[in-house]
Amino acid sequence: MNSRTTTLAIDAAHLAARLDRLPSSMPIWKIVLILALGSFFEFYDNSGIPYVAPGMIKEGLFKPESLGPLSALHAISVSGFGTFVFASLIGLWAGTLFLSPLADRIGRKKAFTFALMMYGGCSAVMVFQTTGFGINIWRFLTGVGLGVQFSTIDAYLTELTPVHVRGKAFSLQQAFSYCSSPLAALLCWIMVLLSPLGLDGWRWVVLIGAAGSVFALSMRNGLPESPRWLARKGRIKEAEAVIAELEAKVEAAVAAPLKRPAPAVAEDLTEGSFKDIFAVGHLGRTIMLSVAQFSNGFGFYAFGAWIPMLLSARGVNFEHSLQYGFVITLSYPIGACVVSTFADKIERKWLVILSCLVMGLAMIAFSQASAPLALIASGVLFTLGSSCQSIAYHSYGPELFPTHVRARAVGFTFSWNRVSSAFAGLLIGILLHAGDVSLVAAFTASSMLLQVFVVGIFGPKTTGKSLEEINP
């Protein structure tokens, strides 16, 4: 590095140290809440997938004749509603892989705004489509917007929260976001069985999400740009202004002087590109996280995106499947709140491993259950495990990469999750068409065991370390 770059690196490190020493306080949690509001609609949208299924299928939208060119592919025409899941997740894959660099180039705040606008606009257009093919096209574009939002929020939240509350910040962000899961299930339970103003219930559920994104956009002015991103772009004065304003707010909130920053650790300030995530020091982390995320997509969405359909396959009728699904999804925010109490006390890689084991065992129990209480209990256990796993991955992944490639790395590694999730949607549809939930359970448990192996052996430890210490 030349002298100017060295000076910028030192300045950026001091600013990061000042942010990391901030105590837990209302100004910090306000930022977390606004970002959670943005991710709320990603969770709402994904959570609604299994619950709008009965209404869409009842309307005949995914019969072969409604799928247009897609009906020529036998596996897809048999999968039916699986095409909608496939379009959703392929869109998420495209957004996370190809558009995640936006946040590294134009800034976290601008990328956050763009993603919300794309999600809301495309969702609104999808509401008024009358064929399965049209719905799948706009569903794909909605997924692209959500994919950008995912990688942006993970990088944004990682960089704006002090090291000692980072795990708790992700837990509470996800707890708030997970409240969208029972909301989506409740709205589907009520609206899918009705047609207010002559509009099918599932269309109202999607339209509510699109309208909510407009409200989230109105709150974005309360977000500062990431000072870490500003500093590495050489905009030290702007980064200094963000930190100084946040320090003043925190000091006023806690009514006490702030402690001195810890010694600063400088981070590399070279311009980022995709090739950097395959460089020495990053390659092992990229491969480890990509394999884990690819495996997780098969396991997580095998249950999460198919709850009512899996319940139906276990002999639960249409209306009761929505009711049981609503009860099961209530455990998402509860699980996240529980995790917030120990997220910064237990090493993140061990949280991933523990949650994978719980999810695998719960899915096996679900496949063998038939009594309502047993089905709900095993479903709740799986959901609690997946809530813990999601928090661990969302906080773990962004920590493993430096600021200049953080959004790219999160997008690339998580894109493998979206690829496997998309094909899991088709595969689960085919397995359920054959009427075999036991195969779904074996499939899920195997994917969880692979993650235990990969993360357990190759995953580095990050809990309690600054981002600059993890990525010198």
TrEMBL record:
GO molecular function, one term: carboxylic acid transmembrane transporter activity
Subcellular location field: Membrane
Predominant place of localization: membrane
Residue ranges occupied by any Major facilitator superfamily (MFS) profile domain in the UniProt entry: 31-463
Cellular component annotations (GO), alphabetically ordered: plasma membrane
InterPro entries in UniProt: MFS_dom, MFS_sugar_transport-like, MFS_trans_sf, Sugar_transporter_CS
Domain of life, per lineage: Bacteria
Key words, A-Z: Membrane, Transmembrane, Transmembrane helix
Membrane topology: Multi-pass membrane protein
Transmembrane domains' residue ranges: 28-44, 72-99, 111-131, 204-223, 298-316, 322-343, 350-367, 373-393, 414-433, 439-458
Full protein name: MFS transporter
Taxonomic lineage of the native organism: Bacteria, Pseudomonadati, Pseudomonadota, Betaproteobacteria, Burkholderiales
